[in-house]
Amino acid sequence: MNILRPEPENRAPLIYRALVFTAAIPAFLYTALRALRDGGRRYLRQRYAYGLPTDLKGRVCLHCCSVGEVRAALPLARELLEDGQTLFISVGTPTGRRMARTLLTEIPCVYFPLDHVSVVRRWLKRLHPEAMLIMETELWPNFFSAARRMGIPLALINARLSRRTENPPVPLRPALRQAAQQLRCILARSEKDAARFAALGAPADKIENLGNIKYATIAEEVPDTAPIQRSYVLAASTHGDEERLIAQSWQTLDARDHLLVLMPRYPDRASEIVKILESMSLKVGLHSRDKQPRPDDQIYLADTLGEALWWMQHASFVFIGGSLIERGGHNVLEPASLGKACVVGPHTEHFETEVRALQDDGGLRQVEDAGELGQIFSRWLEHPDEAEHIGVRAQAHVRDRNQLIKLYVEALHRHSVLK
Predict the structure, then answer these.
(1) What is the number of H-type helices and E-type strands within the chain?
(2) What is the pLDDT of residues 98-107, one digit of tens each?
(3) What is the dihedral of CA 102, 107, 113, 115, to 10 degrees?
(4) C-beta of residue 357 within 8 angstroms of C-beta of residue 342
(5) Are 208 and 194 in contact (CB under 8 A)?
(6) Which residues, listed in sequence order, are joined to residue 365 by a DSSP beta bridge?
(7) Do residues 65 and 111 touch, judged by C-beta distance below 8 A?
(8) CB distance 234 to 377 below 8 Å
(9) Are the C-beta atoms of 235 and 321 separated by less than 8 Å?
């Protein structure tokens, strides 16, 4: 009988749910450890849909997994508020929450639930958002199914699909395909990402390529006063081992009275980074401790959240991390929007289209390794006019594309996600 032999499209969630059930204990242990480390009781409770506010029903939820998505969502959130929408933010990490509380102070923020059936039902029943706007690459089959059954429209914003997600493990493919089909619209950041969602099984009439929303980075709010009273070069959004590689390159240069400022992607790594650099016989300053570099500091750590644009604005030029190692890179459009020359390493898969476009317009340089990075640093320190010219071209590239926010909001109305 058909009741005992479900169709394949109805079988996929059962396979996914079995995998989620199997992972329930490891997921709880990880969440509890993260709560002890930096998330606190709120993180643990809200990830399991307890302790949620009682006054958020009927608002549009803008979901941002972590730091990068929160920063990218800032101009969209402000455009939505101007459009008359009432919002709350959901995040998946404590660092994402701290960023949201720093940049979007006027908008309530909660943690997104773990993708267990009972948990997502409880979260949705308690908050019942008017719509879910999900930034970038979050596909949660149980959450999407529950939201769809409750009549909550789902939209993927600045949608991207990594190569790994495009070809997931076989047991996950049907569930991810179903999740993509639950979305009312997929507003992709590039033609390649739109094609990847189509290949995953999302209906073609739900997919639009609008361009990368990060072109709309808000730059006008950067303070005029520099964060430190020294000329400096900024290495932003760095990850493990990158700090060591960059510092080694920096040691070989004539810095011309410039300081190297490292801004790690996760500021809670600061003590780890200090140990690494001090083992290299480097004098290291810490912004959270010293506020200004000491005279003998060779490297300075900007261990802060929500200040990336400020540090970029007053840097001589910028390196964007996650690109010397295999992390896929980070947002090259932020320094470009500020008119800053930017250099990246070879691993920029997450910003492949933007890196190529900026290179084509003469607004970015890409290197193969830390040695070549040191050569670029040396050249731009010696020839600041060259770095300035690259920054001007980068800023022009971004300004030509900075009307995307309105296109996104118009598309959300067109697909009946927003009222």
Answers:
(1) 19, 14
(2) 989 988 889 9
(3) -100
(4) no
(5) yes
(6) 343
(7) no
(8) no
(9) yes
Contacts of 327 (CB under 8 A, 6+ apart): 239, 321, 347
The letter for the amino acid at 377 is F
DSSP state of 224: S
Query: Which residues make Cβ contacts (< 8 Å) with residue 294, sequence separation at least 6?
Result: 283, 285
Tokens of 390: 């690259």
What are 178's two structure tokens? Answer: 């179903």
Rounded CA-CA distance 391/393 in Å is: 5
Q: Which of 179, 154, 188 is nearest to 60 (CA)?
A: 154
Whether 68 and 266 have beta carbons less than 8 Å apart is answered as no
Report helix, strand or coil for 376: helix
**Beta strands of 268-382 (E only): which ranges?**
284-286, 299-301, 318-320, 342-344, 365-366
Q: How far is CA 132 from CA 27, 90, 177, 404, in A?
A: 24, 10, 18, 20
**Is pTM beyond 0.90 here?**
no
**Tens-digit pLDDT profile for residues 350-383:** 888 899 999 999 999 999 999 999 999 999 999 9
The mean pLDDT value for 273-282 works out to 94
Which residue type sits at 101? R
3-state secondary structure of 367: coil
Query: Is residue 220 over pLDDT 60?
Result: no
Instruction: Quote the tokens at residue 313.
Output: 């604005």
Q: Is the dihedral of CA 38, 43, 45, 47 positive or negative?
A: negative
First CA to last CA distance, the chain: 43
**Token digits of residue 148:** 């769809």
Sign of CA dihedral 54, 31, 37, 134: negative
- Residue 193's Cα: distance from chain center in Å? 16
Q: Return the CA Rg of the chain.
A: 22
Are 72 and 159 in contact by the 8 Å Cβ rule? The answer is: no
Angle (nearest 5°) at CA 192 between 188 and 198 = 70
Q: Which of 319, 300, 330 is nearest to 227 (CA)?
A: 300
